[in-house]
Request: fold
Amino acid sequence: MDVIGPLQLRVMKFIWKNGPSTVHAVHDALNDEKGAPTLAYTTILTVMRNLAKREILEQTAQGRSHVFAPLLSDNDYRAQVLQAIRNDLFAGKTKAMLEFIEQAPEFKRGRKKA
Reply:
């Protein structure tokens, strides 16, 4: 599984939280986020269609609109991404990946000492 991009992830987070949604609903919600750039309806439509082509969303016609539903849960997506990282960057070794995370200074920033 390829990692999805930032805008695709924003779309998926909305759908995972709110369930099957139309492009209109996602477009409105993302444009209502504080500090987020304004997105065109066609941009969201393209993103959602691309997620459907990648079999991350399912697209179903309902009258004149289409409803998009997730084909995998957020936890399934996280697991697949972590599995790909483990396999691609750590030769399939979970222990090596966890040791890297524990030792990497970038992960230690902001953590409170126990």
